[in-house]
Amino acid sequence: MFLSGLVIFLYGIKVLGEGLKDVLDRRVKSFITSLECRKFFPFIVGVILSSLTQSSTAAIALLSSMINAGFLSLSRSLSMMVGASVGATITTQLLALRLTSYSPYILFLGYIAFNLFRGKGRALGRIILGMGLIFFGMFLMESSVSALKESTLFYRLLSSSYYPFLGGVLLTILFQSSALTFGIAISMASQGLLGIEDSFWVVLGAHLATSFTVLLASFGMRREAQALAWASLIYKLFGSFFISILSYPLCLSVSRFSPSMRVAILHLEVVLINAILFMPFLHFLSRISLRFVFSREEIEDLSEPLFLEDSALEFPEWACYLAVKETLRVGSILEYQLLRARRLILGEESKASMVEVLRDSIHHLVDEIALYLERVSGMAEEKLKILTVLGDIKQASDILKDSLDNLNHGEFKRVVSLRKERVKEILEELSELLKMSLGALALSDKLMVRKAGGLRRRIEERVKDFLLKEELVDKGDWLEFASFVRRFADQCYYIAEGS
Questions:
Q1: Which of 325, 431, 454, 480 has the CB geometry, 3.0–4.6 Å to 307, for a possible disulfide?
Q2: pLDDT in single tens digits along all 499 residues of the chain
Q3: Backbone conformation region of residue 19, classed left if phi is above 0, alpha if psi is from -120 to 50, else beta
Q4: Long-range contacts for 21-27 (Cβ within 8 Å, ≥24 apart)?
């Protein structure tokens, strides 16, 4: 009976997720395309993605895929990762409502709505049907686990906090669903098989385990996508360690609630504490996770093409598609080069050699793609478009390296430290423009091209206003900095126009 309930529960989660996706699909797409407009939007989108997929693991894996395709930057995805973790608590709160006895009626209502209506009404029926399946699956699991009350072996397993914690970890990894683990925990708690402390350790184990499945899913992806998976692991590993110290007060805080609600509220508390701990340090988390996947030795591997395949040359359209993917990869290397240059200018890093290594990698890859395109028959217009964008990326990389050579000295860094916040804002907008331009190229989105043009003009106005207000118009280094920002912004916009 337990296995039957387990299967029905998992299928219910799938049906519920499909229904939510049908209802919110268009809105989510508009949210994602508006990411650059609002500061806290990535967090909200993360919550919604987790609600759609009914799994923070699936949501973060989806974010990794979007980074891998060049549609999303690591910095934006970290806020979405935290949002996805918070969004996963919605499912747990629903499970704790204890509607198992009403599951037949919910199933009946969902079935009628699903078959009678069309469009949004049908999608709503799918949602109700999914909830009915989830609660019915929990009812079957509760009925089967009640027999464990008399089991001496089970009692011994729960006598140590290690077993509930390991159980939470293993169940989540095995079924790749923390919702399933919480569903089982709620069923066991309602039957008196899990105390408050045991529930806490199951919740903490399931919370941590979601990061392992994301890490496994990221293998074979681009390094930026792997960096998100490592960030998820670091985020939950250190968060879980700190939260484990708070086990007693957290257990005490839920003691007045019913056993099933204890699991849901503990999950909410664990996730919120983890989010509050790390939200102010997401930029630092981004730097650490990038260090896990990028080293000097590994950077040299970036000069070798990843997507160009000789077997595709027989199909010119496919070969050009692979060349575009490789071009987007070159753009992501330029993003990382700008990140390292920004840290050098702001005095957060002292080694300038990495910027040159990345520039050389970009040059080599541009040459490799050009040679590959020479072997593609026909497709003259498409090849010209790709080569033009590659030239713009190469020029932007050269501007970055040459300007840094002129600005990377002690006197300029000293005066930058006096105006660090203003300079940081300008460089962050420059990074945003590059990301937006690469996104426009990847999606062939004319709206994003227009937005990139508007952002370029805003950056130029910001630099001009900065020089005038700070009375720096006659300072050679600052004029060089302004020239660098303007020329790099121009190249970014040319990349967007290539779409």
A1: 325
A2: 657 766 776 677 677 666 766 655 545 544 554 554 455 677 877 787 776 655 666 667 667 666 655 556 677 778 888 888 888 788 777 777 766 667 788 888 888 888 888 777 887 888 788 778 877 776 776 566 555 545 555 545 544 556 788 888 887 777 666 777 888 888 788 878 788 888 899 999 988 988 886 777 666 566 677 888 888 899 999 999 999 999 999 999 998 888 888 988 999 999 999 999 988 888 888 888 877 776 544 444 567 787 787 877 877 888 888 888 888 889 988 988 898 888 888 777 667 788 888 888 899 999 999 999 998 888 888 899 999 999 999 999 998 888 887 776 666 666 666 677 888 888 888 988 898 888 888 877 788 888 888 989 999 888 888 878 777 766 777 788 888 889 999 999 999 887 6
A3: alpha
A4: 21/52, 22/120, 22/122, 22/123, 22/126, 23/120, 23/123, 23/124, 23/127, 24/48, 24/51, 24/52
Domain spanning 306-497, CATH architecture: Up-down Bundle (1.20)
CB of 473 closer than 8 Å to CB of 367: no
Question: pTM, whole model, 2 decimals?
Answer: 0.55
